[in-house]
Amino acid sequence: MRRVTAVVLVSLLIGPIVASVLWNLDERLGIAIAGATLALVVLVLLGRLRAVVSGRTDADRGGSGDDGEGEGDGWSLVPDWQYEGRFAEAGGITRSEQEQAIREIDEQARHESDREQG
Fold first, then answer.
1. How far apart are CA 9 and CA 94, in angstroms?
2. Which 3 state secondary structure label does DSSP give 55?
3. CA–CA separation, 5 vs 83, rounded Å?
4. Radius of gyration over alpha carbons of the chain, in Å?
């Protein structure tokens, strides 16, 4: 979703400029570019609204952020080493325990997979 947001922002930034330049060359072409920019923004906003209403996230669709976290997950901005320090009262200790449990499960799964292959 971050790519889509970037595309929308770039098109909102560049679209009107391109449309005004093309307007000087051909009025219909400028209108078409401006309309395409608006259509892109509306489509993305409607898609995002539909996802929010249905309760789906990027993780539900199989997508992920840069680090495997859902896009709306604020913990992706916090370094692991600060969970039990600065962010302890905000749920950092629980987050740290959850991530440790996930690492242990992944390690156990790798060991089981190695045993089955070997």
1. 36
2. coil
3. 29
4. 22
